[in-house]
Each structure stands twice: as structure tokens, then as C-alpha cells.
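Question: I have long wanted to understand how a fold can be written as C-alpha cells. Here is the record:
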Amino acid sequence: MECPHLSSSVCIAPDSTKFPNGSPSSWCCSVCRSNKSPWVCLTCSSVHCGRYVNGHAKKHYEDAQIPLTNHKKSEKQEKAQHTVCMDCSSYSTYCYRCDDFVVNDTKLGLVQKVREHLQNLENSAFTADRHRKRKLLEISSLNSKLLKVNGSTTAICATGLRNLGNTCFMNAILQSLSNIEQFCCYFKELPAVELRNGKTAGRRTYHTRSQGDNNVSLVEEFRKTLCALWQGSQTAFSPESLFYVVWKIMPNFRNGASTVVTAIFGGILQNEVNCLICGTESRKFDPFLDLSLDIPNQFRSKRSKNQENGPVCSLRDCLHSFTDLEELDETELYMCHKCKKKQKSTKKFWIQKLPKVLCLHLKRFHWTAYLRNKVDTYVEFPLRGLDMKCYLLEPENSGPESCLYDLAAVVVHHGSGVGSGHYTAYATHEGRWFHFNDSTVTLTDEETVVKAKAYILFYVECQARAGSDKL
């Protein structure tokens, strides 16, 4: 967003001697000493943890405003608002008064000079002495991440994604998709674009669009990103090339062609509408890549999983609400071709064909005439054996296992605002659950996953199994 507070809030010297020693991405919060997501104040150069860790950068901003509300502001105080911070990992700029990331910071040369200075500090950290210390830290970190799985010792090989400035939602989706084998394997097995020199007749090809003198391929950048996420690098991977291509070109789906996306995520809905006056039934088939589910009104209150007052909303409640018979209101009258006019009617959805990977989107953002709110209700969801048979149009034609799904990934929105907040993802890889928070990847457990307030759920079709947990 365009921030009007930069010129009054950014007043530190670009090469300030008050900056801590070492690389900016590893600086510690001056309050809690956490080195996760360090943010530097562009008014006084103090370092605190970002809003998605312990929030001491925000506390620093709030504390600075207290005296200004009780006393007459001098010109010096007016400028010292401590409003704008810079993320020392992604070098993106955030304004607490706007409560959002800033896109016009390049117009103020002072911000760009600070960014360049921090980047130089990061690069200069790779001296011989720092290199030796880093090697020792890597060895120590690797030893601490060893995990016993099925009697054998393995190490975490996940790589995080750098936040490019408000790109946490994109990161969470990419990290979720990288753990859906049916989808990511297709791209990872494609030949690198350098190998496609016109002599690959008969091999799979993918769309490349020219941008000036350079060939830019969305699929190639996507392939490289997916491969990088599990290469075991201790340094976060930057998806800026993919981000650039996404903004420059859009996938071209012509003539309703079948693609790998529709083959894996594509299903078919049957929409039945019945006229309540003459009984005429209308049927329509709609393809879908995800199902957007309302959280029923009776559950739309802040409640935790362990709250005893009232029932807990489950994913089954949301699916039933989506597929239950509904009488359309006066604003949605159905044009009956037999009555030749709009009539009251009922509507019902059936799933005519289930996809291989079922993507369920919970509608957590609620719009009214004047307000945009987040529905913060906890929704209980199964890790295994989500049974979709009762929502099928013809369940008797489906196999005993074809309607069962296991959870592969969960995207979570943190925060209360519609236009702000942060996105992270939980995903399972080779039997273990990981928490993906941009550049930070940590091992977690099933108990933590099931307590998450899910925003998007990815379920993969079960293989043959016995005794599945039912929803």
C-alpha cells in the first residue's frame, strides 16, 4: 500500500553505527532475544522481533506514542514516531500506523539506502571468521534436528521460503502443494528448460512465453521452487523469480483443455434447483477446483476446541451446510422455464465426481454492507479418513476406498483483519508433520495440527486401507 508516513518516520542514518554486529537476518530482539524475524525501527535503529513472533516491534511503536498523546508535540517529537520498521530478512518495509506493508518505500531514497546498507552488512558477514562460526552452528543445528523415525536416524531436509513483503499467503500455498505428491512430482520430473533445445520431440513440453529478449516460463520457475523446498539447504529459498513471472504472465487455459491442475484438483458438482410452484427441476453440472464452505451461523463465535459451552463446529457441519437443501430468498428467485417467470425455489448441491486431491476453503472472511470481519471459530477436522460418500450423487457406484481422504496440508490465517495478518502452513512429508512459516521450517506433531484454525485444507485420496477413522 502507499504509505504517507515515510518522510516523517524514517530519520536514521543509512550507515548508523547503532546497528548490532553480525548479519541483520540473525539480529536478536532487544527484549526477548529471539532471532526469528528481526525488525529494525527506521526512527531509532533499535531491533525487536516482528509482529508474528512476540510482537515487541509493535510494542516499541505503541510505547513511543504514549507521551505524544499527553504533551504538546515538538517538531522533533513529531518526526520521531517510531512508526516504520524494516524486516531484516526480506528487507520489506512495514508501517504500524497503516498496519500494512509499504509499496512506495523506493520513492524515499533514505529507505533504499538503509536497505542497501543492511544488505552490505549481510554480505560482509561472510568473512573467514564468520564462515568458521557458521559451520560450527550448522553442525550443531543439524545434530539437534536429527530425528528417530521407524528405528532409523534421519535429518530435516526442508527449506523455507523468504517473505518478499506480504507474500506469506503465496508461500503457505506453495509449501502446502510441495507436500502433495500427486501434484508436485509432475513438475519436479519435467526436464529443466535448459535441456529443451528443440531436440526433445516426443517429450512432455510446457508453456513458455517471451518477455522481451528473455524466455520466461511460469512452469519452469514453479518447478525450480518445488525442487528447492526439499533440497536440504539451511538457507531460505527466495521465490522472487516465480513471483515475478506470476505477475508478468498468466496460465493460458484455451478451449477448455485438460491440464495437470484439473486432472488432480478437478471435480464436478451437480446443482439441482426445484420450482416450489410447479415442481419443475433444473440440473446443471459445474466443474470445481475447490469447495468454499460457509461456517454455519450458530457456530460463528469465538470459541476454542476445549470450550465446554456449546457444541464445537466440525468440518462435517460445514459440508452439510454446503450440500443441504436450501430455500432461496427473495433476492435469488429462480426463472422457471415452465412458469415463464421467477418463482420461489429450492437449491441443493451434490458432488457428481470427486477429485484426487480435495481442496476445502473455509469462508473465514465475512462481508456486510459496512464491515469486513473474520470468523474466528475453531472448526474440527480429521487427519485421516475424511469420508465424502454421503455427499456423492451416486455413492453406490464408488469403490469402498475412493471416497476416503487423508489430510496433506493446512493453511492458517493468523490475525483478525481481513486485509492484514499472516499465513502459515502445516504439511505432512514422509510421515512427519512440519510447520512452514515463510523462511522458518520446524517439526511439529499431530496434536498441534488438529488445534489449528484452518483456512484451507488439502486432502488426498486414500489408498486401500482398513479401519479408517470416519468423519
Remarks:
- The radius of gyration is 26 Å.
- The CA atoms of residues 64 and 82 lie 7 Å apart.
